From TrEMBL:
PROSITE patterns: ACYL_COA_DH_1, ACYL_COA_DH_2
Superkingdom of origin: Bacteria
Alphabetized SUPFAM superfamilies for the sequence: Acyl-CoA dehydrogenase C-terminal domain-like, Acyl-CoA dehydrogenase NM domain-like
PANTHER family: ACYL-COA DEHYDROGENASE, ISOVALERYL-COA DEHYDROGENASE, MITOCHONDRIAL-RELATED
Family affiliation: Belongs to the acyl-CoA dehydrogenase family.
Entry-linked Pfam families: Acyl-CoA_dh_1 (PF00441), Acyl-CoA_dh_M (PF02770), Acyl-CoA_dh_N (PF02771)
Acyl-CoA dehydrogenase/oxidase C-terminal domain mapped to chain residues: 234-386
Protein name: Acyl-CoA dehydrogenase family protein
Domain called Acyl-CoA dehydrogenase/oxidase N-terminal: residue spans: 13-124
InterPro entries: Acyl-CoA_DH_CS, Acyl-CoA_Oxase/DH_mid-dom, Acyl-CoA_Oxase/DH_mid-dom_sf, AcylCo_DH-like_C, AcylCo_DH/oxidase_C, AcylCoA_DH/ox_N, AcylCoA_DH/ox_N_sf, AcylCoA_DH/oxidase_NM_dom_sf
């Protein structure tokens, strides 16, 4: 191979750059003006979702055969990044339905794909992903939610916690024990429609991501047709891990966007704020902070794009679990550090809600926790490195 002319797949094409520019303009005009109110009022970012739907963003991650755009993963990462740069809650509205539908796309029957994917692609329907429980977050095999076969249905009983889009979603992708004695091998996966009896018992009041509803979802003897089982009985754990490997890089992209938004606001402030007779952007100590923030963000962004490109290539070397964990952990740690430094750069103003950097700091924290804590990501990485 002539490496001098070879372009790595995670270097952005002209089409990627054009998409970013168009999306950034839309986000600045249609989403950013509502972001502070969405956070303050803890309300669903309906304006942002409507703008995303007009731009046909829900279709990006859905195959063309089912009404989607079939966009590559780097394009989807750019979407997550640019939306999160102005409003992390709006970014989540685009990521969560893809997460909920990934098991259908990769393991579902043709019937399931044709019944559900087109509605998600059009933005008509939204989806949630129900894996975690009160005592089964990182320890997935400890889940207690049960699915008992009853003729041509399963009877689903249990409670799921920390469910994104609770009460908004039209479908819930639910993992439950069909064989409680078999540990992780006894978990199966189901696609459950909201109006079959899904109940939201509680919505959480959160530190950040306050425009994205997170709730406790209850299944009280909900009857689910056998046709809505995703994959085979006992395949649920493998489906869950396969799905998270492919969604974690976009959480990394979301984190990069949060950090980039914080840095951009800090830079703008530094040019305006004067101290000792000059803009504080001239102070070397602060310039070094900005340089470190920018370096870490660019490193995180490149790692995210690398992981995304491996997904597009079909993971030929079996490295996606490690790269996805690296991208998610490094990008979210970076977002938290960059947002914290952005607050510092604004001084007292940064600590108030008049400026968006304190919201970025609060929003960044969850990226270190959900879709696998960063401690779990380090377990995954170490396992791959050490063998």
């Amino acid at each position: 191979m002539n490496t001098a002319t070879h372009t790595p797949p995670f270097v952005l094409t002209e089409e990627h750059e054009q998409f970013r520019a168009a999306l950034r303009q839309m986000a600045e005009e249609r989403i950013a003006p509502y972001a502070a109110a969405v956070d303050r009022e803890e309300r669903y970012p309906s304006e942002g979702f409507a703008a995303c739907r007009e731009m046909e963003l829900p279709a990006l991650g859905i195959p063309t055969a089912y009404g989607g755009a079939g966009a590559d993963m780097v394009t989807q990462a750019i979407m997550a990044e640019e939306l999160a740069r102005v409003c992390a809650s709006t970014s989540v509205t685009m990521l969560i339905s893809k997460l909920g539908m990934l098991p259908v796309m990769n393991f579902g029957s043709e019937d399931l794909k044709r019944r559900y994917l087109p509605r998600v692609a059009s933005g008509e329907a939204q989806a949630s992903y129900c894996l975690s429980e009160a005592d089964a977050g990182s320890d997935v095999a400890a889940m207690r939610c049960r699915a008992v076969r009853d003729g041509d249905h399963y009877v689903l009983t249990g409670t799921k916690y920390w469910i994104t889009n609770a009460g908004v979603s039209d479908t819930y992708t639910v993992f439950a024990k069909t064989d409680p004695e078999a540990g992780h091998r006894g978990i199966s996966c189901f696609l459950v429609e909201a109006d079959w009896g899904v109940k939201v018992a509680k919505l959480e009041h959160k530190m950040g991501l306050r425009g994205s509803p997170t709730g406790e979802v209850v299944f009280d003897e909900v009857r689910v047709p056998v046709a809505n089982r995703i994959g085979e009985e006992g395949q649920g754990f493998a489906i869950a891990m396969h799905t998270l490997d492919r969604s974690r890089p976009t959480i990394g992209a979301q984190a990069v966007g949060i950090g980039q938004g914080a840095l951009d606001h800090a830079v703008a402030y530094m040019h305006e704020r004067r101290a000792f007779g000059a803009p504080i952007a001239d102070l070397q100590g602060l310039r070094f902070m900005v340089a470190d923030m920018a370096m870490r963000l660019e490193a995180a962004r490149t790692l995210v794009y690398r992981a995304c490109s491996v997904i597009d290539q079909g993971d030929p070397r079996g490295e996606l679990s490690m790269l996805g964990a690296m991208a998610k952990a490094f990008a979210s740690d970076t977002a938290m550090a960059v947002a914290t430094d952005a607050v510092q750069l604004l001084g007292g103003y940064g600590y108030t809600s008049d400026f968006p950097v304190e919201r970025a700091m609060r929003d960044a924290k969850i990226t270190q926790i959900y879709e696998g804590t960063n401690q779990i990501q380090r377990v995954v990485i170490a396992r791959h490195v050490l063998g």
